[in-house]
Design brief:
The chain has 253 residues and is of the alpha/beta class. The chain has one domain: Spore Coat Polysaccharide Biosynthesis Protein SpsA, Chain A (Alpha-Beta Complex), CATH 3.90.550.10. The chain contains seven helices and 13 strands. It has helices at residues 30-40, 54-63, 84-90, 112-117, 174-186, 198-204, 226-237; strands at residues 2-3, 23-25, 28-29, 45-50, 70-75, 99-102, 106-108, 124-129, 140-143, 149-153, 163-171, 210-214, 220-222. Strands 6, 8, 9, 10, 11 and 12 form a six-stranded mixed sheet that branches. The protein has a three-stranded parallel sheet with strand order 1-4-5, sandwiched between helices. A hairpin with a 2-residue loop joins strand 2 and strand 3 (28-29). Helix 5 (174-186) packs across helix 6 (198-204). The chain is globular and about 45 Å long.
């Protein structure tokens, strides 16, 4: 889980509190809801990459342990001067077996990780969302027929776009070492500090290692801005019934 950044676009909310600890469902934070979803889907071990507000994240984990989850942290000392490529590279030592990679600002229906875990086996699998229109900030994807990923990036021509990455993916088998090796190559680039890890995923596309699985109507949200935060809080506030709701407490106990 990539939770090292401050989230400056969310100031003043993130002046002291890291983005992942912002509350969205009563007193429950983004991080708590993510961990509950992972645990509900059978995940038992989680590594959280921390940076800004690392002490706050670690205090939260100590005060609110998740039953069934073993959670540890790793620190990215370059969090204030780099993008998430460096955070991924700093996590490379953890990439020794099949794993899920999750952005620290992504929320979703609690069964979405299970959708990924049960997807057709591929070295790399991205979860994507399809919608009618895409904006400049969307991490757009282009497919090469069926589920195979052709390209991913914010600047793809709209005529070639088939969806957007939601910031959740899985690496299996040779996909683990392929991603780790590609990170080692990318970190040597002059612009590495400004790069996103999805540029590494894009570099793997010609090898046909990367496939996708679609949300197919399941809810998800990315919290990048104050407007995003308000929308997510409104979403949870509108969930009156644990049968209808996505993340209410009753569905995660």
């Amino acid at each position: 889980m990539l939770c090292a950044g401050q989230g400056r676009r969310l100031l003043p909310f993130t002046e002291e509190e890291p983005k992942c600890l912002l509350t969205v469902d009563e007193d429950r934070s983004v991080l708590e809801l993510q961990l509950r979803a992972l645990a509900w889907c059978g995940i038992t071990e989680v590594t959280i990459m921390v940076g800004f507000g690392a002490d706050r994240v670690e205090r939260f984990l100590a005060e609110r342990p998740m039953p069934g989850l073993t959670v540890r942290t790793r620190y990215n000392p370059f969090f204030d001067t780099s993008n998430n490529l460096v955070t991924c590279w700093a996590a490379a030592a953890e990439m020794t077996e099949d794993f899920i990679l999750l952005n620290g600002d992504t929320l979703f229906d609690r069964d979405v990780p299970r959708l990924l875990l049960t997807s057709p086996e591929a070295p790399v699998t991205l979860v994507i969302n399809r919608k009618a229109e895409y904006d400049d900030d969307d991490m757009k994807v282009s497919l090469n027929g069926g589920r195979k990923l052709k390209a991913v990036g914010k600047t793809l021509p709209l005529a070639t776009v088939h969806g957007e990455s939601i910031g959740l993916m899985m690496f299996r088998g040779r996909g683990v070492s392929a991603f780790r090796d590609a990170l080692d190559v990318a970190i040597r680039e002059p612009k590495a500090l400004q790069m996103w890890y999805l540029s590494v995923i894009n570099s793997l596309c010609p090898s046909s290692l990367v496939e996708t699985v679609a949300l197919d109507g399941r809810w998800w949200a990315e919290i990048d801005t104050c407007e995003d935060l308000a929308k997510v809080r409104a979403h949870f506030a509108s969930q009156q019934s644990p049968v209808v709701g996505v993340f209410p407490a009753a569905r995660y106990e």
